[in-house]
Design brief:
Layout: E1 3-5, E2 10-18, H1 25-35, H2 41-44, E3 48-51, E4 57-70, E5 73-81, H3 89-96, E6 101-107, H4 113-129, E7 139-144, H5 154-161, E8 168-170, H6 179-198, E9 217-218
Parallel strand pairs: 2-5, 2-6, 6-7, 7-8
Antiparallel strand pairs: 1-2, 3-4, 4-5, 4-9
The structure holds guanosine-5'-triphosphate and magnesium ion.
Guanosine-5'-triphosphate is lined by residues 19, 21-27, 55-57, 81, 83-85, 144-145, 147-148, 172-174.
């Protein structure tokens, strides 16, 4: 849930990486974490992962990020992943609570098309289950694993997964490709949405300065900390 404090000029937003098992959600966060500039090694330990011994996400991954100031506001993004394995649905619902925006990480492989479709359906069902109107949650789609031999063509993936014509990005998260364009797209959409809401007398016309890049840094906050309604 967005936290906008007009006195301290802070804006905090929650982005959830959603998608089927093994599509590359955790890999996205690992690549972001590797790329952001950290002032000290201590700050770099801010990626929290709760995984099984085989690196499957058990609960969630969490990475807090702070961007440069946007319209005078200090913007912080809390990045989470859900566990993609079908059995962990209750956990996915918990992680989705208070979500502001979603990155749907689809697996490009032909044999994962059904898993993508099921996961997208599951996202909308879970949002409704926790009483969030899916129409109010911006989603960007990442077609990950473009490097695999049996990758489906983008047009076909678009036809199956993106009837709403949401912004989409091709990626090889394993090699770090497409990770930041995806994150920047959802960040910009959210900054525009929430800063416009919070400052109706002063339109947020420069949300682009909230771009997340290697000069962003991990923010010092903990999972679930200080999220409150505007
Ligand atoms: N070929 C290829 N493999 C990738 C890519 N991105 C991630 N992987 C691999 O896919 C596997 C699963 O990646 P994860 O990031 O753990 O997937 P996840 O979506 O977090 O999986 P769950 O936590 O089980 O839901 C790992 O072996 C990654 O190295 C990619 O772009 N190309
Ligand atoms: Mg994972």
């Amino acid at each position: 849930m967005a936290y906008l404090n007009r006195t301290t000029k802070q804006l905090q937003l929650k982005i959830v990486y959603y998608g089927p098992a093994l599509s590359g959600k955790t890999t996205n966060l690992v690549r972001v974490h590797e790329s952001v500039k950290a002032k000290t090694d201590k700050e770099k330990s801010d990626l929290v992962t709760l995984a099984t011994s085989t690196d499957r996400t058990l609960f969630f991954d969490f990475l807090p990020l702070q961007t440069v100031k946007v319209n005078g506001y200090e913007a912080r993004f809390q990045l989470y992943t859900v566990p993609g394995q079908v059995i962990y649905n209750t956990t996915r619902q918990l992680v989705l609570r208070g979500v502001d925006g979603v990155v749907f990480v689809a697996d490009s492989a032909y044999d994962r098309l059904n898993a993508n479709i099921e996961s997208l359906k599951n996202l909308y069902q879970n949002l409704e289950e926790i009483r969030i109107d899916p129409k109010n949650v911006p989603v960007v789609i990442q077609y990950n694993k473009r490097d695999v031999k049996n990758a489906a063509p983008i047009d076909y993936l678009e036809y199956l997964l993106n009837k709403e014509k949401r912004p989409y990005f091709e990626a090889c998260a394993g090699a770090g490709k497409g990770v930041f364009p995806t994150l920047n797209a959802i960040s910009k959409i959210l900054l525009k949405k929430f800063l416009n809401q919070g400052q109706s007398s002063r339109p947020a016309n420069s949300a682009s300065s909230g771009t997340v890049n290697s000069s962003s840094r991990p923010a010092a906050s903990k999972p679930g900390q200080s999220t409150s309604s505007t």
